Amino acid sequence: DEKNVKNHLISLKSLTYQGLYCEKEKGWLRYFIVNDIALRLIEDVTEEGGQGSIWSASLVMSEYLHQNQNNYINKSCLELGAGCGLVSMILNSFDSDVVATEQPSCISYLKRNLELNQHLGINVDCQSLYWNKYEKESDCRKDEKYDVIVGCDVTYDPNLFEDILISIKNRLKYDDSYALLSHDNDSCPLSKLAEKNLYVLCEELN
To answer: Which of 47, 81, 90, 106 is most buried, by CB atoms within 10 Å?
Structure first.
């Protein structure tokens, strides 16, 4: 819940609940301080489908990465469904090479937030990516493998479980590489059956 999320974010020093409305950008300007770097994001909470929102799952993932940043220095990282780009920028602040991916309809929002932070040395590659059977030849770095793959609230639809997991498997290196997924079951609740099916698919594709 919101209280627990706020508690998780103490060390990240998130000001996400104290943002300022930016008339020029038509959205809320949020700040996240990571290792003395103040990341800026525009959140559009009015966008249909919530694609312009900063979800709790990404806040918890950001806090986890911040607390364990020594494990993510100089890594090659891929984010699925990057949304606002917060998690990708935090990984990039650890001197990791990061590719942030989204579906084409969300790319402009993701690029806008990345551009807001270029003056800080944030350099995240932004690419479109469909999962598994929807992938196209033009999709990002199709044959590239990564040390770490992250995704926040990408498991909201059980019909996409297999697509997501296959996309992850196809892009992971096989030496000490892994994926981290964060899901907010309050905003996007999954049934017990859906959760069980996800674990079964993970075992089958392992």
So the answer is: 90
Output Rg (C-alpha) for the chain, integer angstroms. Answer: 16
Grouping H, G, I as helix, E, B as strand and the rest as coil, residue 52 is coil
In tens, the pLDDT along 35-92 reads 888 898 888 766 665 667 788 899 999 999 999 999 999 999 999 999 989 999 999 9
DSSP assignments along 100-166, one per residue = EEE-GGGHHHHHHHHHTTGGGT---EEEE---GGG--TTSTTTT--BSEEEEES--S-GGGHHHHHH
Q: CA-to-CA distance for 182 and 150, rounded, in angstroms?
A: 8
> Which bin fits 26, alpha (ψ -120 to 50), beta or left (φ > 0)?
left
Helices 192-205 & 161-171 angle (0-180, nearest 10): 30
Q: Which two tokens stand for residue 84?
A: 């606002």
pTM of the model: 0.84
Whole-number Å distance between alpha carbons of 87 and 14? 13
158 has pLDDT over 80? yes
Spell out the residues 6+ positions from residue 56 whose beta carbon is closer than 8 angstroms to its own.
2, 5, 184, 186, 187
